[in-house]
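TEACHING EXERCISE
Course module: macromolecular assemblies
Task: Read the component lines below, then compare them to the predicted structure of the full complex.
Student: A.B.
Group: 4
Components provided:
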Amino acid sequence: MGKIPAHRSAVTLRDVAEQVGITASAASMALSDSSRISEKTKTLVRAAAAELGYVPSSAARALRNQRAGAVALIVPNTTRHVFGHSYFMHVLTGVSSVANDRDTQVLVSTNSDEANGLAAYERVMRSKSADGAIVTSAAVTDPYVERLSQSGLPVVLIGNFPYLPDSITVGIDDVAAEAAITRHLIQVHGTKRLMHVSGPLDHQTAIDRRDGFLAAVAEAGLLESSLVIEGDFSEDAGWQAVRSLGQGIRDIDGIVFANDDMAFGGLEALTDQGLTVPGDVAIVGFDDFGLSRLTTPSITTVSVPAEDLARVATERLFDIIDGVSDGPAHQHLPVSLTLRSSCGCVPKGAQPHR
Amino acid sequence: MGKIPAHRSAVTLRDVAEQVGITASAASMALSDSSRISEKTKTLVRAAAAELGYVPSSAARALRNQRAGAVALIVPNTTRHVFGHSYFMHVLTGVSSVANDRDTQVLVSTNSDEANGLAAYERVMRSKSADGAIVTSAAVTDPYVERLSQSGLPVVLIGNFPYLPDSITVGIDDVAAEAAITRHLIQVHGTKRLMHVSGPLDHQTAIDRRDGFLAAVAEAGLLESSLVIEGDFSEDAGWQAVRSLGQGIRDIDGIVFANDDMAFGGLEALTDQGLTVPGDVAIVGFDDFGLSRLTTPSITTVSVPAEDLARVATERLFDIIDGVSDGPAHQHLPVSLTLRSSCGCVPKGAQPHR
DNA sequence: TCGTGGTGCTTTATCGTTAAAGCACATCCG
DNA sequence: CGGATGTGCTTTAACGATAAAGCACCACGA
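Instructor-supplied answer key:
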């Protein structure tokens, strides 16, 4: 193996320069292809750098250039409980791929130590460990996020934050999406007595999805026969919501869950009570981060392009870091309905395998 | 839209020192509680630092101290396909929590862009962006991982790497675990004609699990009536494996899949063919990263403590970084069997909700 | 012949932090 | 009362990279 020799101590630019017989400055200029360095020297320097396995010290570069060469992916601690794991993975994948193209490191910062009054991610930014941050799914009223987005540091939020109109955000139109899938239930499957199990209503996402449901129900004249129960995006909340109606659940013929986890919990509760899905009750979820495809019946849902959201947000972030400030402050990416078995669209077990 | 924030430039230690009327060095000593600084000055410095919102520059510190204050979580691109998203999330959670306790940043390096012949994660280490790395590799022979672990840089591998005896690893005993769950199928459920769908056999995990299966089958004298099919840990491979037997599948009464994804794929294929699980065939998976609990029937599996593995690995990494070099080179954490419906232990639909 | 303009490097200074050495001044002990 | 020890700061230097300025040297035109 050992094509590249094992190095006891790190190779610095000086080592490279010395081997060529010039100063570190000249070597630096050579590697950055300066016009003030002869082609011959450039070739020599490049060869020496390759031979010695020179990799610039990120700390020295960061200090000198006042640029960390890293972006932070910030996850306020509440998020872990509120959103599933897979959502975050999709986001990380998106951020990573864009960052990679820019030779930038990705730093993941969750918030657990608020010991010194500063959120962990505020420290990350203030210490200049990262040049900018992607903030994912914060609560409506997270004061740290608010301060961060108003600090003047490059920050892009994933989601919708009407309370922070000056921030840069990339999200989806939750209202329209939830309205669309509700309409699907009403128009295609003829459901008339609908229930919505919402997320925690201190999250904008939860509010918007509820409003979308209500809009679709209202426009169909079904507002009277509908109800909303507040959940918290957890599987258990979906289960509880269905249980809480007791026998009253038999009057419902369609349930719109604000996410897939709750839909799965609801599905279990319905099955426990001897109700069939979609026979007795048609249900739909939201997110499509993995779970909804696996259940029996599989759950019809709104596919949220999490990875794309992250990708677009990160590209936006780099623009801001580079001083390019055009582009809309608030962007919405399109979503699609993924029709499966739980609403009655696809016969149980008939989904093509691949 | 371009308003200039109050904190235009960052607060440096010099700003703090100037406000107190001393030099930056003295301020530095004050903040590190040096005995050569008077209590009065220390108090003043601390107050000024708090007032100005001073946060040390990570780059300057890293350069001066020759320590980045960050660890890297390295995920070779093959790993992501082999293990799912959830595995990775558990690992990230574990690494983060330990790193957070040590005021250390977590840097995630996934793609290996081999543009300049150096894997992305080798650049991370060589550029001193991180003081050490946790590597979640799967393949038996990743030359970059090999080189990294032999470079002398602090590295801890999650998994088992018998071909790298000098490396520090934290894993589980795949052989024993797969043998145990196979024995469960044989002894508790009386299966006699067993199939194993393995992972790709250039992965140590796949090899070990297969060997565990074979050991258990051999000790029960069932080697003759058993077979092994090589898969690749994907859902589709599980599906294909079952299909590939044609009607021959009806001679099988127990299938040990090397992970849950393949078990789910196999479950679908079995159901498609009109076979019931666990009635006609008892099946088990491996991992328990989320999926196996969601399916119908839920899948009996080996629970891999991914978060704990990551936590232990990270603690080990910090020890190495700090120069503490005791502790075993190769550690195994215990696993547990999670009995669900697919083997026949728990009646379908009878699992307690919480 | 002198100046003007490249060319190709070296010198210098800086980013922010911190260990080590330096230096006044005070205090203690024999 | 003079050397030793302490106290509390300042000065210096270094971590590694890199812009900017400096400086030889050569070539060319007037």
